[in-house]
Design brief:
Helix content: 10-25%
Protein name: AL1L2 dehydrogenase
Structural class: alpha+beta
Order of helices and strands: HHEEEEEEEH
Largest sheet: 7 strands, antiparallel
GO molecular function, one term: catalytic activity
Pfam families: Formyl_trans_C (PF02911)
CATH topology of one domain: Methionyl-tRNA Fmet Formyltransferase, Chain A, domain 2
Organism: Helopsaltes ochotensis (Middendorff's grasshopper-warbler)
CATH architecture of one domain: Roll
Amino acid sequence: VEAVHLIADGKAPRIPQPKEGATYEGIQKKENAEISWDQPAVALHNWIRGHDKVPGAWTTINGQVVTFYGSSLLDASVPAGQELTIKGASRPGLVTKNGLVIFGNDGKMVLVRNLQFEDGKMIPASKYFSADETTALELTEEEKKIAEDIR
C-alpha cells in the first residue's frame, strides 16, 4: 500500500536499469539454440520449448540441420517406433505415430511434435521417414471431365 501511495504522489524512488544484461538479443540467435544432448529430459524439454518458435532449438540429423518445435515430457513406457540417429545424442530417437521421442541422459523421454528442415519445410515429426514420399492424385473419368470443363 505504501508503494502505491508513493507512486501516486510521484515520490517513488527511481532506480535506472543497468544497461548490462538488459537485452535478450544474444539468446535469440540461431547459433545459440543448438541442443546440448548431455542433459536430463526436463532440461531438453525446457530448451526446446524456450526456443519455440524463435529462433528454434536445433540439432543435426543425417548431416542436415533440423529444428524441433512443440515438445512435451513423456511419462510412459518406451513406445514402438523407427530409430533415428541424432548427432550428439547418446541414444537414437524414435519416430512414432505421435512424433519424435528423444531421450535425456537420465533415460526419460521427451516427445517432439514438429520438425523443420533447412529449406523451411515443416512436417509432423511422426512423418519423418515418409516426408519424401509423394502420392500422385488420380482422377476418375468423371473428375477428369470436370477438370477439362473448368480449364
